[in-house]
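Hey, quick one: can you model this chain's 3D structure?
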Amino acid sequence: YIFRDTSGALQGILRDTWLLWEHRTGIRVDLQAMDWAKAQQVMLSGKADVIDTLFFTEARSHIYEYAKPHATLRVPVFFHKSINGIATPESLKGFTVGVKEGDACIDFLQAKGISEFKPYPNYETLIRAAGNNQVRVFCVDEPPAFHILYKLGLEKEFRHSPPLYVGQFHRAVLKGNGVLLNKVEAGFA
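Sure thing. Here's the predicted structure for all 189 residues.
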């Protein structure tokens, strides 16, 4: 959905759709891509107006007002090819699960009784760590996981479970900013 090319420039569907939104609305967009936990901190500090690719969670619903979903993603667990028997959240008991800091997967797995996590700042760092045997099991949204696994030549080293759950990307604003959310939604409409 968003990544940096070899020169460091932003690329991807999010970049393209926000540029189109800017063109159609005439409102300038300062798109800032950053590690996920930092993006949430930036929002909470009031240094950004909108956050994109936010999954709905009960905890987040007390902080954010959500736009309609704009993408649906499956969320499996990926595991090294030498490991068998991982198909459900319960089958993760006893494993340390690699996760992206601030990811909705953490809340989901904690609710299922999983408590051992190894956080990484972003999906690429997490998958690189898995490729270096620093973590053997990890939870990553399916589309970015496949993109990064293929990019790093690791696609044959890891298998994945059926989806643990399906999440949806939303754009969101802090509670009380419904007028801005309506403006964002109108621009995408």
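One thing worth noting: The mean pLDDT is 96.
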